[in-house]
Structure formats: C-alpha cells, structure tokens
Amino acid sequence: MLSPIESTLAISLFAAFADGDRCEPERARIERIAAELGWDDLSSISRQILMGKLSLSAAVAGLDDAEERRSAYELARAVCEVDGDLSPDEAAFLEELRSLLGIDWESSRHLDEEVDALALAPFSPAAVDLPPPLPEAVPDQGGMILRYAILNGALELLPETLATMAIVPLQMKMVHRIGKAHGVELDRSSIKEFLAAAGLGLGSQMLEGFARKWIGDLGKKMGGKKVGKLANQVTGSAFSFASTWAIGHLAVNYYEGGRRFGAAEMKAVYEPLLAKAKDLHARYLPDIQQQARSLNPAAVLEYVRGGREV
Q1: φ, ψ for residue 182, nearest 5 deg
Q2: Tell me, what's the pLDDT at 136?
Q3: How far apart are CA 295 and CA 290, in angstroms?
Q4: Residue of 242, 241, 267 lying closest to 254 (CA atoms)
Q5: Residue 156 host element (H or E)
Q6: Cα 17–116–252 angle (5° rounding)?
Q7: Which terminal CB of the chain, N or C, has fewer other CB atoms within 10 Å?
Q8: Distance CA 287, CA 290 (A)
Q9: CB of 82 within 8 A of CB of 203?
Q10: Cα–Cα distance between 240 and 277 in angstroms, integer?
C-alpha cells in the first residue's frame, strides 16, 4: 500500500492527467521534476498510472486520516482548476474522487469554494495603491516582476497548502498585467498557451511545488534522513522565485517582440532567464524572508483576489 504522501502524489498525478493531457511533453515534465527532486517514486507512480497499473481507488486506500483525505481532494481540485473552469472529464474525475475519499457534499462544497477563490479570481483587481518598489528593483515592469518573484518565493516559506496553491494564479496575474501593458488583453486560455509554448504546463508546475513541499515533510517525518536532493523550504523558495522571475521577463520579451517567438525561441530565452533568476535568489532572500513574516492565509487571498496589489 502507498504511504500517505505517495497516495496524495498519485491522486494529484491523476488530477494532472484528468483532462486527457497524457502527451509526451506532460510526461517529460513530470520525469524532469522527478530527476531534479531525486525522487524516483514520482516517475514510478506516474508510469504506473499511465500504464493502468495503479487505480484511483488504490491511491485513495493509502489515506486513512480525514485531514489527509481533505488535503488530497483540495490539491486535486487545485491541479484540475489551475487553468480555469473544469472540463467535463475533470469534473467527473473529482466526483469519483470525492466518492472514494468519503467526503460529503457539504464538506466538498466548502473545499471547492476555497480553491475557486484562488484559481478563478479575476485578473484585473480593484484600483489600489502600489507599494514602493525595492531599492534594487529595475524600473517599470522589472520592478513589478521582482515583487511577484519575492512574494512567490515567500509563499514557499509558509506551511499552509493555500500558500502553495496561490503561486501559479499569481504568476498568471503577472503575465496578464504584462500583456495588458503591451495592449494585449489575455484570458486564462491564452496564458496557458503562452506558458505551454515555453514548455511550462500549469498543472505540472503546481504539482512540482507540492512535490517539493511533500519531500520536505517526508524528510522531517523520517527523523532528518535525507529524502531527495531538494528537501528544504529555501530550495522551494528559490524555485518559485526563479520561475516567477523568468516567466515575467519571458513575457516582456514576448509581448515587446510582437508575439513573434516560436516555441523553440521561447524555450531558448526562458532557460537563461531561469538560470539568472536562481543566482538572484540569494541576493533577495532577506527580502523574501521579510515578506513571509508579513503573510497569513487572509493576506494570500487578498493578493490573489486583488484586494492587495503586488
């Protein structure tokens, strides 16, 4: 039988595949995540699901605790909803999962509303005063991108699942703001296409954030024994900071260039940006840690919903 963390991971993988996106790029992204994390279980479970050797009911069987089941359902819905409204296949998957987990309708409605508040929040916030940029921030869009990167890096330092769920929606809001600054009004579908062209799947990106946190939790439960190569909060913070910074600057290049980049060009631009951002994380870690101290679940929701601007 799977462990609780393996079961939650398997359920989230089922969610990532629920819309029928089992293509080679999606599998390759999951394999890359597994290689970077040094966690062979991720690749193994993914292959078992894709080959039909692991059922959803078998994955659910590894969860005995009510809170674990609640968290698994919440994470699965977040992965399904990361690119917007649920497809019929995703809705059917979540209905089956809810039944297998033994979650009653009233409880699931509350969980659904909690995830919806993050995943489906409008991109355009109400008019609010922007905080002053950091002294080191580059002007204009560069400063805005840096603030999003610092905020997302800070979210990885928080223990709440809600914080990890907020990272991808905030990245999408950032891209929406960049597109709008260049006269392009983007919706979730167009942002998903933009990220996919750069080799970034929304579902697998959210899954990566959860996987990093799970590995850290697993390491703690094993009494400090090393589990995977990247099992600490600072590493997760560096990943979220770097991916947000790189996505933001890729979007600026893309929309300033009149959206003429092809997929190969976008990937060629993104990778050096990501490498540069990873080097920048240490420089801004004090700012990230300070931001984390000011955050709580209510503040995270305000950022996503637009009540507090980045």
Answers
A1: -105, 20
A2: 42
A3: 9
A4: 267
A5: none
A6: 75
A7: N
A8: 5
A9: yes
A10: 10
Question: Is residue 93 within 8 Å of 55, Cβ to Cβ?
Answer: no
Q: Is the dihedral of CA 38, 41, 42, 46 positive or negative?
A: positive
pLDDT digits (tens, 9 = 90+) for 197-218: 887 777 667 777 776 666 555 4
Q: How far apart are the first and last CA of the chain?
A: 44
Tell me the pLDDT tens digit for each residue of 134-174: 444 334 688 999 999 999 999 988 877 778 888 888 999 99
> Looking at per-residue confidence, does 36 or 236 come out higher?
236
**What ranges do the domains of the chain cover?**
4-119, 141-305
Residue tagged 């968290």 (tokens): 71
Question: Which candidate, 9, 5, 171, places its Cα nearest to that of 76?
Answer: 9
Question: The CATH number of 4-119 is which of 1.10.3680, 1.10.3470, 1.10.4100, 1.20.120?
Answer: 1.10.3680
In this prediction the pTM is 0.78
Residue 31 identity: E
Token duo for residue 201: 């799947």
